[in-house]
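dude i think i finally got it to work??
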Amino acid sequence: MATHLAVLLFLAVLLAGAATSARGFYLPGVAPADFRRKDALAVKVSQLSSIKTQLPYSYYSLPFCRPDAIVDSAENLGELLRGDRIENTPYVFEMREPRMCQIVCKTAFTQEGANDVKEKIDDDYRINMILDNLPLVVPIKRMDKDARTVYQHGVHVGVKGQYSGSKEEKHFIHNHLTFLVKYHKDAKTDLARIVAFEVKPFSVKHEHDGDWKGNATRLKTCDPHSRRLVLDSNSPQEVEANKDIIFSYDVNFEESNIKWSSRWDTYLLMTDDQIHWFSIINSLMIVLFLSGMVAMIMLRTLYRDITKYNQLDVEEDAQEETGWKLVHGDVFRPPVCAELLCVYVGTGVQFFGMLLVTLIFAILGILSPSNRGGLMTAMLFAWVFMGLLAGYSSARLYKVFKGSEWKKVTVKTAMMFPGTIFAIFFVLNALIWGERSSGAVPFTTMSVLVLLWFGISVPLVFVGSYHGFKKPATDDPVRTNKIPRPIPEQPWYMHPAMLVLLGGLLPFGAVFIELFFILTSIWLHQFYYIFGFLFLVFVILVLTCAEIAVVLCYFQLCGEDYHWWWRSYLTAGSSAVYLFLYAGFYFFTKLDITRAVSGVLYFGYMLIASYAFFVLTGTVGFYACFWFTRLIYSSVKID
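look at this
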């Protein structure tokens, strides 16, 4: 066990170093773009997002200025599932060519349009833009002198405030945006690469001279010729129906020492990074210590039991001995609902393979935040192709139970878990459709998901099941009696419900700190990038699930209770209950979700996550006990 701990500690140091040294690394699949002076730059919008509602909307769902023709950019499957709708904008940028007081358009909101804008301001909606694959950020300087600048993702549609001397709250729109594009110039050529995309929003009630001449109109409130620029929002533009609003922008270019390979550091920088790293390391060390102690105790006790049982074979009182050896004739008796157990084990193997492959690609940098939607796309395809392992695992276990209807088990393996998730997802998607959100998955995308399921995953499950069932079954180390042995009455602390609920505490304790950062990245729209530590937490989770399941299985067998099949699965899988409870705690303490639909969406998606977590941890616990029981009963002499 000491070697085990040493390897894990070495892995922690290695992965931590990999995570910190990832800066300055060229990510696979993301090629830099070089721009010359006056090259056109495409400014795009992705969505309107809010942490209050969790419902994304298309940028042009609000009555903003539109280009002559709205062009949708090609998106991958992950972006569509996230609700991104990447479209062009009327903003005109030319590389290293500053533009001041540029008019976008003049528009007047209808009563419905004004109400929509006010509603979005109330819900703290932000406009998310993209330039050269970089998301737009708003720099916010802290009051502390030594504090780093914080970057807010996206710019708010507007703000609520009051006129001086009035208590009535008004809505003001950000109708003037001052963009700053930072670039890194090649010393040998005139080429430059974009390394930052920032903005400062203002609300300005524009006035103009003479008649309106479109974009050529000269503004009184923003005129570069008279050196009158927008520097504050002292005269803000109120959101009112049937009143003209002029949208304008500035764009400046600034040379930067930041290299293209390091341009994402600004977005990935966490303000509480020291606390984050210390908390993770502290949690991992505690879990490693507890797991090591439990494993060492188990090894010593088990070695003593096996030695004692083998010595008792030549003694007269061998038959009077109690303990786990006495249930050798029943320990491998097939459990109730054996088919269902095979289905859940196969699904757990599929989920385990999906996570392992996804984390490996993420550690290599292929699934970085710069590859939008890449993480979700990779998880979907990994899940689909891991159907081969799901079918093989369920069929092999079904063969151990000496079952014959392998096709029935295969169909359940291919349909039960995905079908349940798809049903919940369909209901949640219908709710999003009802809110007219761009987060609703289109019919074509839904058809693609169904095609991946039935066209690739289901056939692969059948292929795996066929090969798994065709192989000869693994023989049990001991024979099973024809008549089941009566189980003695168990003390209260050995009650199945008690052991199952206690068994889930340690696996949950291994991940709950990292879970906080994962939930924050998902629901507070932040980037998550420490995949090295996430992989380490995943390894710790697997070890903890295996060890706690083995320990409780050992105590159960010592109490002459041989119903360990389902118990081993539920013991580790019960950590999903604590995950869902923690999700509820996070909802009420960290989020400011106001709509009932948004709350249903949150708990619906967390229910899916908890169900998947149950399948994963339960499968790990089951296989650990499966290996453990076969090991100990093959180590003693049975008459």
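The CA atoms of residues 100 and 250 lie 5 Å apart.
im so relieved honestly
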